[in-house]
Amino acid sequence: MKLVDIRLLPSMAIARLGSASEPLDNYQIETDPKAPLDFRRITRAETFIVDTESGEITDVLPPSDQPPAFKSGNRIRPVAPFIEAFASVVDDSGEERLVPLDIHLIEQMGLSVRWQIEAGNLKVYRRTRKEKDKVLARLKNIDDHQLHPLKGECRHFIKDETGKRKHIPLGRIQFIKPTPAHPEIRLRFTPGTGDVYGSTPIDRPDGPDAQTMGGPTYSDIDIPPERILYDSERGTWNGKYRDDNPTLNTLSQGLYAAYGKAPYFNYYDDPQPARGYLDDACDGIVTLELLDSKGRIVFSSKARFCAAPPIFAPDSEFVRTVQDDVLQVLLGPSVDNPDGVPIEASLDIVRRAYETVRFMNVAVLNGDTVKGRPNHADTMPADDSSDFNRPYAPVMAPHSIDTLSITALHQQLYTTLSSGAAPWFYDLMRKPTETADLTDKGRRKMPALMSGADTCYLALTYRQLDTIKHAGQGGMFDQPAEPPAAPALTPRNLTAQLMYRGRGNPVNAHIASSVGNCCPGLELDFRSVWKRAFEGITLVEHDNFVLEAEGEHADLKGHRLLSIEIPDEQGRIQVWPVVVQATGPAADGDSVGPLPSADSNDSIVNLEWSNTLSHIWKFKGQYLSCRFTREKMPDRQVLADIPKKQTIKRKLKVRDFFEEDSTVINEALASPGELTQGLCSPWQNDFRECVCYYWASSRPDYVNVEPSADGASHGDNWMQKKRTGQYVVDDYRDNRMINYQELFTQWETLLKFQIGGRDVADDPSGD
Predict the structure, then answer these.
(1) d(CA 670, CA 253)
(2) ∠ CA 506-508-514 to the nearest 5 degrees?
(3) Which end of the chain is more exposed for a tag (fewer CB within 10 A), N or C?
């Protein structure tokens, strides 16, 4: 047997924050084929018990029909995923196989094992652009089986009484010790506890303009002295920092805890200083090295990991995930065999849309009045009006829809599609180029009421849409309505490698449970990977602005990318614009056309990178012609009809999205810390800022839902402190809601997991 290569799988492992001492058991979710739209059944799967002192797997919990406990007392059990090593070997017959890399093969080959780990939290750096604000942790040459802390260090952190600089605990790494029962080579990442860290105090304004958000001012948050670590006198993160460059921001307000005017403010006109909060979320890269007897690296392989918030509705999935986005890169925007797409592939998308919408209070998010009063919730209709000066109007006819009626509609749709009537369904879907269509018809396309990465309406990936278009056409009545078998794990089957979850890893540790294409996201700001798609330039995650440029393209810095020329299969050049004009009804309601933005200029919307760039990846290593503005343009207005004479064309080389022969995102696209740098600081801010239309199946909105006497529904807002059965519209000032301060300090106690759409009672035992 010959060892020819190694792989680390899963290529992206997602850990989830929590302070309980015992990690969450492995679990899986199953769909009942007789009731496919019921809540998925959670059952415990094979679970490894690790002795952290020895590093050995000392026990294996067998599968159980009962779900695991997601909390231990008032503490949330963290998700601590394993990353496994695989060997690509050639046997005596010449067949190449992918097998678990174990200690026997290591010893047989006369090799030894060594790990390198690097993690980062670049949230502060993303805003200040100061190198000394990077929080980085590195572990080098790990070959033992101890539990190694990932110490996030920053040059702007203060020193403790011993003279050592403080750090943020970003989690722990352990090389699991191979044993006769478990000889495989694997690593485990246990994330941080989800705590909020603070900065040294400086003089700040107080009084009536303080941003109270329904509770005491941010300066009143009681952070333990050991978690005060940022030096505000040396850095600018606490009070002195003001984010004066909206182009760099990934969302208008609320990406960090700001010291501003209560309760709403115009971010672009009045940028607010940060309050100096940091968190222990991170992302990183782990590298496995196999060394010969002389210490030389013979084989190496990488995988990525990140620490993210828990999924609070673990029996549901999101309509568009990171896996959907990465599969589109790997396989392309079109399905390879249109006649062979099973109907179940389309049904799965409908099922996930249903699972998302059932946690949304559809009537509120539609913009309907609530009990005769104006609806001030953060909704798509409100955003349409404030961002684009579109006349305010609910998406659907007011009071014509309710969560129960919309879920019933999805049920009917699922049943209809199961019988094979698929072609008309494709026409109901929003296409990626239609996300800024704010006409009545455009806003009502599916998925409805959900925001996408461009802050306009969410669209599925091109590949998802093509799947819907062709699902079942090659024999729809012979297709069983059950998930297709998982692809075989082989050295060349990159799809199987991408979808591999890992032994002992819960469902929510995989990118199939990670929110994709959202604004900016929950686990990852996945838009970060697109910004270096072309060698020589760095774009903004959400914008066509060239943030950095180097080498022969250094002159492009400050310009804007307008379009990309991509050859089709016949060699004809297709021009793909990256920006579109928002359109909708005029104020008088008599005409439809371009919408003016809030500052009276044209509303130009950047199309999301994931779909816009989906056609370039097959040209990796090749050059494509790209058109840019001739002049530097800090603003993107007037880009809709810019004359060609005011543009320049440049040939740019397309990067490879993946590390060589793998499904690991290329480090040239995003270094450790960059996949999470666009998220909130602290991460809890996102749970308070964002209403459910971003990712309702992960961060629920509408829970404990029951039919009302009038045929509609009633239930609780997930963020309500007291469950009453009467939904409270989200309002920062309403003391019935969990406020920022409580969320920052008591999130594990206050936030409740949902199983079957109902609150799960806390486990009275445990930590």
Answers:
(1) 24
(2) 155
(3) N
